[in-house]
Amino acid sequence: MEKAAPVAFASAKMRALKEDELFPSTPGKFKIERSHQFHRQYQRCFASSTTIFLWVIFLIALTASFLSFQPFLSSSSRLSSAHSWGGLQWERQVRVSASPRRPSGLTVLVTGAAGFIGSHCSLALRKRGDGIVGLDNFNSYYDPSLKKARRSHLSSHSIFIVDGDINDARLLSKLFDIVPFSHVLHLAAQAGVRYAIENPSSYIHSNIAGLVTLLEAVKSADPQPAFIWASSSSVYGLNDIVPFSESHRTDRPASLYAATKKAGEEITHTYNHIHGLSITGLRFFTVYGPWGRPDMAYFFFTKAILAGKPITIYRGRDGLNLARDFTYIDDIVRGCLAALDTAGKSTGSGGKKRGAAPYRIFNLGNTSPVNVPTLVSILERHLKLKAKKHVIEMPSNGDVPFTHANITLAMAELGYKPTTNIDAGLKKFVKWYISYYGHAARGIFKTNL
Ligand SMILES: O=C(O)[C@H]1O[C@H](OP(=O)(O)OP(=O)(O)OC[C@H]2O[C@@H](n3ccc(=O)[nH]c3=O)[C@H](O)[C@@H]2O)[C@H](O)[C@@H](O)[C@@H]1O
To answer: Membrane spanning segments where (predicted)?
Structure first.
């Protein structure tokens, strides 16, 4: 590029100079003169054989520089977005990261690898010797520095995260060209239930358009990987039969977020039906733990309590406390790995289905709902600080009053069995939070209970 730019610049300058010389600056009268003058100049230029020779050399140089920079030009549109990928060094990093370290290890593309669940799953897969390539767009929905810290942590375990978007079809096609992925663990999404009111289009962009772009790439990949992805407990919406079972109604979402996750379940079904993709949808129930998401209540409650700031606790319209089936990250990771290990093969090749492939949906919850005031009191105990509580009626923002998972199916088919209760899980979270954000150093652990 260093060479091409001056050539292009010089030729542009030449053109500009010639035009300046050829055309007088006063408009109007020169029109005829202009054509005469141009004609004379044209004749002068090509009259001598030396000039013709120079022109030929110039054109050859121009063509050569254009051809030699074709690969760069083809990736320049990628660079025009915030992301960068491509090049030999990049391909080498992708290939090395994708190589399993154990015989018959999986080769997994983990989308959202710099996210909460994605980073934990990537690490767990690497620890048992699987090959992983991460993909993440490092967007600023919440503090990207936390995502970058997760990336550094993964990088120290030789996991490479591609900086790119699931909406980038060319990037996906490149990844599937250079790595024969056995599985895709699709965890990239626009998360958060209440943010959908503020920014609805971000949910369509990531959870619908991004999902379809990714499925198109998976469909065309050879070999065709099995597809395991993050649905959500929120698909149960207004369902009030507890505990929530996979056979219950999911056609009454309470938020746009939930609606996009429900749509994802239907969209993946069509790819299973038409293209033979092996599909496993995992309905996660309010996952929490170390390296968690700062937009979730347990996380920002902790921050506020440590800072002595008030927290807002929502209460149901009937005066009842809201409750969630909070599920600890390590249990979820075990569920994800079991889903990968038990996923049947996709049957398509070259985009054509060769036979029926599995389509599965599982609840991954804890089966012990905890109400929000109890969550807060556990945090208070572990933080040794009293929260300043501000209780208000639940706004109409997409929240549901409670969630409670029936995990019978996941237990039977995945061997899934959550083992961490909310007290033990929040204790681990608080320990991580203090070590990560360093509040202990500021003497915040003095009790005010
Ligand atoms: O399981 C799920 O499907 C979903 O779990 C969480 O959503 P949510 O359960 O709403 O988790 P939080 O946002 O952490 O809220 C937890 C509880 O705290 C309550 N809350 C939240 C915020 C607040 O300021 N006050 C408050 O009382 C909420 O009403 C809710 O009952 C995640 O944010 C979603 O991405 C995920 O898909």
So the answer is: 45-69
| pLDDT tier, 55 (very low <50, low <70, confident <90, very high otherwise) | low
Shortest-distance Cα residue to atom 8 of ligand 1: 286
Q: How far apart are CA 10 and CA 181, in angstroms?
A: 47
ipTM over 0.95: yes
Question: For atom 16 of ligand 1, which residue has the closest CA?
Answer: 297
Q: Which residues have C-beta within 8 Å of that of residue 395, sequence separation ≥ 6?
A: 314
| Phi, then psi, of 390 in degrees rounded to 5 | -125, 105
For the chain, which domains are there?
A: 189-289+328-365+404-418 (3.40.50.720)
pLDDT digits (tens, 9 = 90+) for 237-252: 999 999 999 999 999 9
Interval 119-142: pLDDT, tens: 999 999 999 999 999 999 999 999
The residues annotated with a catalytic role in the active site are 257
Ligand 1, residue 189: give the atom nearest the CA. 35
Reported pTM: 0.83
Question: Under DSSP, is residue 75 helix (H, G, I), strand (E, B) or coil?
Answer: helix
Residues with CB under 6 A from ligand 1: 191-193, 232-234, 284-286, 296-297, 312-314, 322, 324, 372, 399
